[in-house]
Design goal:
Blueprint: H1 15-29, H2 41-51, H3 56-69, H4 73-78, H5 81-88, H6 95-110, H7 119-122, H8 130-141, H9 150-159, H10 172-184, H11 191-204, E1 255-258, E2 261-267
Antiparallel strand pairs: 1-2
């Protein structure tokens, strides 16, 4: 590994060849997920919020319950936040639910109830960053917007034989630039499919250690700069995280007999400040 920062993507196979392999594979091999059966921007947005730092199988039942209770942006915007949080209970990272609720209200107030179509407009909403905005814009509105997460960085690092530390934010511009070039060269109606194919490839085939990636099943392997010299398992380069700090704390639980039931006790619960 060198110390030089690489800012320009290395040439890959012609985009047409890359897209052909990715789209053909994705069409037949993609997982059947509920948010892939809809073109509703709100439902796609909801899935992207729930999938942040959360496993697909964990999200599925929450996604179904949430849409059953709040099938439209209007119903979510009008809901009480505590009800929204109760449906989110167990999914974790509750700030996502609060942001989703706030963003739904902003869509009603400032966008006439319609989810914005562009990345710039989407990013003005609470809780929507570059990745989520790119996912919604490309999948729901067929915009040539890139998306980059851990799976996509791993795929692109191997495709381009990029040997810089992907945990270092200084190198992330490389992946956004390369992802933009790839999605922009795709057929207009398939911007979202190319993005999802890259994510699916990273989640199911181009996987990280210690699992052994299924390189022989990888559709663009002949265009992969890491595959030809056998460097797949060396990439991407990723520095180890600092040890997780251990924080010790004490909690106080107040109990008192339940006047309505002598065999039961009441527990005092206080809501944290907003």
């Amino acid at each position: 590994m060198t110390d030089k920062l690489t800012t320009t993507p290395q040439p890959l196979a012609p985009p047409e060849t890359l897209h052909h392999h990715l789209l053909e594979w994705y069409r037949h091999a993609r997982r059947d997920l509920p948010w892939r059966r809809t073109s509703d921007p709100y439902a796609i947005w909801l899935s992207e919020m729930m999938l942040q730092q959360t496993q697909v199988e964990t999200v599925k039942p929450y996604y179904a319950r949430f849409l059953a209770r709040f099938p439209t942006i209007n119903s979510l915007a009008e809901a009480d936040l505590q009800e929204v949080l109760s449906l989110w209970a167990g999914l974790g990272y509750y700030r996502r639910a609060k942001h989703l609720h706030q963003a739904a209200q902003a869509v009603i107030q400032h966008h006439a109830g319609r989810v914005p179509e562009t990345v710039d407009a989407l990013r003005t909403l609470p809780g929507i960053g570059r990745y989520t905005a790119g996912a919604i814009a490309s999948i729901a509105f067929h915009q040539p917007a890139p998306i980059v997460d851990g799976n996509v960085m791993r795929v692109l690092a191997r495709l381009a034989a990029y040997d810089q530390d992907i945990a270092d934010p200084r190198h992330h511009a490389f992946f956004w630039t390369l992802a933009q070039e790839i999605v922009s060269a795709a057929p207009k109606s398939h911007y979202g499919d190319v993005n999802q194919a890259l994510m699916e490839l990273g989640a199911t085939i181009c996987t990280p250690p210690p699992s052994r990636p299924a390189f022989l099943l990888c559709p663009p392997r002949n265009a992969c700069r890491a595959y030809a010299p056998g460097r797949q398992l060396e990439l991407p380069v990723k520095s180890k995280k600092a040890p997780t700090p251990i924080i010790r704390a004490r909690a106080l639980i107040l109990l008192r007999p339940d006047p309505a039931d002598s065999n039961s006790q009441r527990v005092l619960l206080l809501r944290r400040p907003t």
